[in-house]
Amino acid sequence: MARKNALLASIFESMGKSVDTITPEPGQRLRLSGRRLSMPLPAKPVEVELGKERLHIQKEVRCDGSSPSNPPDLVVFNPDSDPARISYVLRIKPGACLHISRDQPYQEHLFNKPREAFRRNFQVEHEGENLVFRDPVSELGTFITLLDQQIEQSPVIVQRGKAIDKIVEAYGGPLVTMDQDEALDNIQQVNALLVKESFRPQDATGSPGGLLQIPEDVTPVVIGDLHANIDNLLKILSENAFMQELEAGTGVLLFLGDLVQPDTEPYDEMDPSVLMMDFLFKLKTRYPDGVFFLRGNHDSFSTEVQKDLVPQAVLWRKKLEELRGAEYREHMERFYDLCPVVALSERFVACHAGPPLGKTKRDKIINIRRHPDLMHDLTWNRIRRPGRPSGYSASDVRRFRKSLKLDKQHTFLVSHTPYSDKGTLWCDVGGIENHHILYSSRPGYVSVFIGVNGAMVPQVYTAEPMLEWINKRTGGTSS
Question: What does the pLDDT read at residue 4?
Answer without folding.
Answer: 45
